[in-house]
Amino acid sequence: MLLACTVRMMLHETNLKSTFHANPDGSSIRAADIARNGAAEAQPHVAFFIRALDGGGAQRDAILLANSLSETGIKVSILTLLPEGRLRRLVADGVAVYHVRAKRLATAVIALRKAIRELKPAVLFSSEAAANLAAFAAVQLLTEKTRPRLVLREVTAPSIAKGLDPYLQNRLAFRLAGYVYSRADRVLTLTDGARRDLIVNFGVPAERISVMTSNAVIDPQTVARLALDETATDIREKGLLVAIGRLSPEKDHLTLIEAFAGLHIRTPARLVIVGEGPMRPALEAAIARFGLEDRVTLAGATNDPFEWLLKAEVLVSSSKFEGLGNVLIEALACGTAVVSTDCPYGPREVLEGGRLGRLVPVGNPKALSDAIALALTTPTDRATLRRAAEKHTARQAARCLITNLQLG
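Above: the chain's sequence. Below: its structure in token form.
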């Protein structure tokens, strides 16, 4: 009943307006909406539904997966509500980008259905709870003959994200996650923890869920760049701690600042927090309260986390939950020491139970401070960390995805 009401709401809000704009010849996809560079007509065809090309880790990962699948000869398209965001530059020339003309996900179902009918993909791949709900609704509106195989990727810790996800549309979509994921052809999670979460707390059949043991975090250009940096002179700044992530409550930078306040008294260090978001005023107030203005910097957002990770002695993550923790993998790829909260579910799996980095309880400033102090005074086996990150290149992830999509 709740799903039916949600779908009716989506259809009502579209008012049949959220469609591809028709060409004079009657076709519904405009040439201007397609970015193509002579890609060969290969089968099968996989369509990636990505909410917007201006998002964060989930959107970036999906683009890298699309690029890598395209390199294998599979025909790949990206369907998106916002085709000209900051991530557009990452899309490979051989990947077609189609503009689904809707302002938000709730009004995108009809447009998405039309795109699927036009493109006839064998597989529709979607990530994030709200986008997954829209993809599911669009596929349900197709006849059985025209439905693609629906593969939904869950990129976070569902039980926690349904209350703490920074985006309202995702929090609402999690109310239907059990129903939707149980009816997808395949559900992919980033961690074993998220898989167990969906089985135990959302009732999703275990046989429908696979874990992506390799995830598209490191793109080919970064692989080449890091190979050069590995042989270059070390440019690390002694005592530099870096945290990278959106300035939002679930990242818990307030605990990090409190931990640093206890650390800098005994250990020479400075902290740079890279990111932007609604918690900036609260973080600025905390920095002032602890008298850390000359030791803690809010550096704003960046398109190049590796610039910071290659300089840092330690990457610190203080999150309350993480779907995977891409920045942890990026730090490992740079050979940078890692200290992270042992939050659901990514860090423990990425850091192999603490073998590749220090894990501390969530929300415990003293434990975090002590772990950072230890990391600063312990030699880092950079080669081991770099090797551990190799399985998370885009090409490795594409091979993993081909297996899970049953394409090869």
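The chain has 17 helices and 13 strands.
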